[in-house]
């Protein structure tokens, strides 16, 4: 079934959100394309939200939505969780400032908690986003190994910078053989250098990945991987175990990008689920409870390449004649380890220690309910994912193991479905994954399944 751009879903969407369109036209006078991040846009225009509370979002027209985007999974406790708000207010009241510009107690307190949850993280550094966390992990891998190429997997996203913005969503006809994918730049303004220095691997095929890694062993500092691609295509256990053993054998560092999976498969993320210890880990999204943060952590010997040294810093104006800034890996940031954000993150963990099981159970209940409704109508569907994050794949394919498999899905029908669900008050960005929060209870699940039943009947 193919649905055109002029499907009923979009027609009713436009009728339902006139103030969003009006505001979007005004926003386009201020920001290119009316938005400050490409990911926030979708055609014909994004909904402009005015308020969020618990599991709900409210737009400029007063429409109410059950929010399953949850800021791409960051809001694992929902909008405005009272304990997180109180923790931030307490930090401000007790410390008297929202930014020290110096080391402070919460950096260590949060760090010890992360070390407890992620045993592979022996030392860590704070960043301001998941993107910055993967960027730092790659720089550390370069510095530690002395090699200047990395390998990533086709379809995996690790941030919007040149080294990794390669073969994230490439046209299949240009992407090369499935077992030997080509490196394809995903943005204007990128130098061809990155297509040569970022090697692309096939996901969930250890034999094919091994052949490429063995051939490029002497060039590669690290392999970076989303253990759950896009947050919803899990690595097969034999694959991720094989990748860990292979990278050890070849003396290539293994970086787990757990920005999406942090707290989503459990408090210990994907590495706890798979019982794998990567060399370096990047965390983000849920770790800050909705505030901007990233964490890069890993083996002590690797992390210590960033040890600050006297007279060996890019900002040191009195450098020694015997050393210079190149003697140390540079990492800095005015807002790294922001006290208000760390207070929010610590309280988020405290709530999750009490409630994470019920969040994952709610996700499983919703997945089963959606699958049952499609099955009753004879429509092939997969609710693919682990823990409290999943995606809806409309396909008859038995298994979805990687980016190529995903291309067989019916995106046109999914897009129409998403717009009609938005019109019924169920929100995620069209074609995007679903995330569940502690604010999503039985009431939200029941309303969501009622909307799905109505929309599936209509389609």
Topology:
Layout: H1 8-16, H2 18-27, E1 49-53, E2 56-59, E3 64-67, H3 70-73, H4 82-95, H5 105-117, E4 123-127, H6 130-145, E5 149-153, E6 176-177, E7 180-181, H7 193-197, E8 198-201, H8 206-216, E9 220-225, E10 228-229, E11 233-234, H9 237-250, E12 253-258, H10 269-274, E13 280-283, E14 294-298, H11 300-303, H12 339-376, E15 382-386, E16 389-393, H13 403-406, H14 411-423, E17 426-427, E18 434-435, H15 442-458
Parallel strand pairs: 3-17, 5-8, 5-9, 9-12, 12-13
Antiparallel strand pairs: 1-2, 2-3, 4-14, 6-7, 10-11, 13-14, 15-16, 16-18
Helix pairs in contact: 1-14, 4-12, 5-12, 8-9, 12-15
Task: Characterize this entry briefly.
By secondary structure, the protein is an alpha/beta fold.
Describe the 3D structure.
The structure is a single chain. With about 450 residues, this protein is of the alpha/beta class. It has two domains: about 10-80 and about 355-459, Aspartate Aminotransferase, domain 1 (Alpha-Beta Complex); about 100-335, 3-Layer(aba) Sandwich (Aspartate Aminotransferase, domain 2). The protein is about 40% helix and about 15% strand. The chain is built from 15 helices and 18 strands. The strands form five sheets. The protein has a seven-stranded mixed beta sheet, sandwiched between helices. Strands 1-2-3-17 form a four-stranded mixed beta sheet. It has a three-stranded antiparallel beta sheet with strand order 15-16-18. A hairpin with a 2-residue loop joins strand 15 (about 380-385) and strand 16. Helix 8 packs parallel to helix 9 and helix 12 (about 340-375) packs across helix 15. The longest helix is centred in the last third of the chain and has 38 residues, at about 340-375. The protein is globular.
């Amino acid at each position: 079934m193919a649905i055109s751009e002029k499907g009923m879903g979009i027609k009713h969407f436009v009728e339902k959100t006139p103030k969003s369109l009006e505001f979007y036209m005004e926003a386009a006078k201020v920001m290119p394309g009316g938005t400050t991040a490409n990911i926030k846009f979708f055609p014909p225009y994004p909904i402009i939200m005015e308020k969020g509370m618990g599991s709900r979002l409210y737009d400029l027209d007063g429409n109410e939505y059950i929010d399953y985007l949850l800021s791409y999974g960051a809001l694992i406790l929902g909008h405005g969780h009272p304990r997180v708000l109180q923790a931030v207010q307490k930090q401000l009241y007790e410390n008297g400032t929202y930014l020290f510009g110096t080391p402070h107690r919460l950096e260590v307190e949060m760090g010890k908690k992360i070390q407890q949850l992620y045993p592979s993280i022996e030392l860590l550094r704070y960043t301001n986003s998941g993107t910055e966390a993967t960027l730092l992990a790659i720089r550390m891998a370069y510095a530690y190994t002395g090699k200047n190429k990395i390998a990533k997997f086709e379809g995996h996203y690790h941030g919007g910078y040149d080294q990794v913005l390669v073969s994230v969503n490439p046209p299949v006809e240009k992407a090369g053989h499935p077992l030997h994918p080509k490196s394809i730049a995903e943005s204007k303004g990128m130098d061809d250098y990155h297509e040569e220095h970022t090697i692309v691997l096939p996901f969930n095929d250890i034999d094919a990945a091994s052949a490429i890694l063995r051939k490029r062993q002497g060039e590669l500092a690290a392999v970076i991987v989303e253990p759950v691609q896009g947050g919803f295509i899990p690595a097969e256990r034999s694959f991720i175990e094989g990748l860990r053993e292979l990278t050890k054998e070849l003396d290539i560092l293994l970086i787990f990008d757990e920005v999406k999976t942090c707290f989503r498969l459990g408090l210990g993320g994907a590495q706890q689920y798979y019982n794998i210890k990567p060399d370096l880990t990047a965390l983000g999204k849920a770790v800050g409870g909705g505030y901007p943060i990233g964490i890069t952590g890993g083996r002590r010997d690797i992390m210590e390449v960033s040890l600050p040294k006297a007279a060996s810093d890019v900002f040191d104006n009195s450098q020694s004649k015997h050393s210079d800034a190149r003697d140390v890996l540079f990492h800095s940031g005015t807002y790294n380890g922001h006290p208000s954000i760390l207070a929010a993150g610590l309280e988020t963990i405290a709530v999750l220690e009490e409630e994470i099981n019920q969040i994952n159970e709610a996700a499983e209940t919703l997945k089963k309910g959606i699958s049952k409704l499609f099955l009753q109508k004879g429509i092939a569907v997969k609710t693919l994912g682990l823990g409290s994050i999943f995606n809806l794949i409309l396909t008859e394919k038995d298994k979805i193991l990687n980016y190529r498999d995903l291309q067989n899905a019916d995106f046109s029908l999914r897009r129409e479905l998403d717009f009609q669900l938005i019109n019924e008050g169920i929100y995620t960005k069209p074609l995007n994954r679903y995330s569940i929060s502690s604010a999503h209870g039985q009431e939200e699940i029941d309303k969501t399944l009622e909307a799905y039943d109505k929309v599936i009947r209509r389609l």
